[in-house]
Specification:
By secondary structure, the protein is an alpha/beta fold. It has one domain: Vaccinia Virus protein VP39 (Rossmann fold, 3-Layer(aba) Sandwich). Helix content is 40%, strand content 18%. The protein has eleven helices and seven strands. It has helices at 2-17, 30-44, 47-52, 71-78, 91-103, 140-150, 167-176, 187-194, 205-211, 241-249, 252-258; strands at residues 61-65, 83-88, 109-112, 125-131, 151-162, 217-223, 265-271. The chain has a seven-stranded mixed sheet with strand order 3-2-1-4-5-7-6, sandwiched between helices. Strand 1 (61-65), helix 4 and strand 2 (83-88) form a beta-alpha-beta unit. The longest helix has 16 residues, at 2-17. The chain starts with a helix and ends with a strand. The structure holds S-adenosylmethionine (SAM). S-adenosylmethionine binds next to helix 1 and strand 2.
């Protein structure tokens, strides 16, 4: 337990140094800064709006867990929900999202909170959304239990967590296990030590389905990410000649067809009866 608390502090420190997507934000004014990040995000990751279905927010009570810079959160706010709430572990993310929404003249009930202990009553939301967050929390199954608890019967959760058998995982394994003479290092440890914040986890489809077992219906889809395809400014933590060469020679077309089930992103749509 103490170990989990220490790890969560490290996760918080990591994301409070820089929110996800800041690297894509440029511009003279605050408006330009956030607009440039949205544009880059949805160009690089068109599967986000396809999965989120922001247009379904109308008239719903919505919660987003782990708002980050607030890119998707502002799309939920534009969807004309009945109510919108957003949480994140870090003050930086909450500040970004508040600023972004106020520039757009939109509102949300935003607060710092832990996904593993959501500050909401049971059955509070029709739709819960979380993109790339719950695998960073030390106790991911507990965070999923919380999603189930605060979701209303008849509600839907759309959650992206990392998929274990991914090109990203294989590349990191090559770099940090094979090339360091440690080929027995399991994928679990590779993600834990080398992908984004300390303690990141990734799950097989079966493991994810087990965590979502209390839900009545669960659809899963593996998605190749820009990281798997070495697109955008991927690999900031792993700079080096090998990565530069790989980025140039990466057979993206081939990988899209042969390795399409080896993406890092596991998209989960879970219904509660
Ligand atoms: C990779 S970023 C994703 C942010 C945003 N969803 C996006 O797609 O850009 C991960 C975010 O999860 C947040 N986070 C990590 N653990 C959390 C927890 N236990 N509770 C709430 N937020 C958490 C971090 O602070 C960070 O903002």
């Amino acid at each position: 337990m103490q170990e989990e608390s220490r790890l969560k502090e490290k996760v918080k420190e990591f994301w409070d140094r820089s929110s996800c997507g800041e690297v894509y934000a440029v511009g003279q004014s605050e408006n330009e800064y956030y607009a440039s990040e949205s544009k880059a995000r949805y160009e690089l990751e068109p599967y986000i709006p396809e999965f989120a279905k922001f247009y379904e927010g109308k008239g719903k009570d919505i919660l987003e867990i782990g708002v980050g810079m607030g890119t998707d959160h502002s799309e939920w706010a534009k969807s004309n929900p009945k109510s919108l709430s957003g949480v994140d572990l870090t003050p930086r993310a909450i500040e970004h999202t508040k600023k972004r929404l106020s520039l757009l003249g939109l509102t949300s009930n935003l607060r710092e909170a832990d996904a593993e202990r959501l500050p909401f009553d049971d059955h509070s939301f029709d739709l819960i959304y979380s993109w790339g967050v719950l695998h960073h929390s030390p106790n991911t199954p507990q965070a999923i239990k919380e999603v189930f608890r605060v979701l209303r019967p008849g509600g839907i959760a759309r959650i992206m967590i990392y998929h274990k058998y991914s090109l990203t995982g294989y590349m990191l394994w090559t770099r940090y296990a094979l090339l360091t003479g440690n080929p027995c290092k399991p994928l679990h440890d590779i993600y834990f030590d080398h992908l984004e914040s300390p303690g990141t986890k990734a799950y097989s489809v079966e493991e994810a389905r087990n965590m979502f077992a209390p839900f009545s219906k669960v659809n899963t889809k593996v998605q190749l990410s820009f990281g798997d395809l070495l697109e955008g400014s991927v690999g900031q933590r792993h700079r080096g000649i090998l990565l530069s060469v790989a980025k140039t020679l990466w057979p993206r077309k081939l990988l899209r067809s042969v390795f399409k089930n080896h993406g890092l992103m596991l998209l989960i749509e879970a219904h509660k009866e």
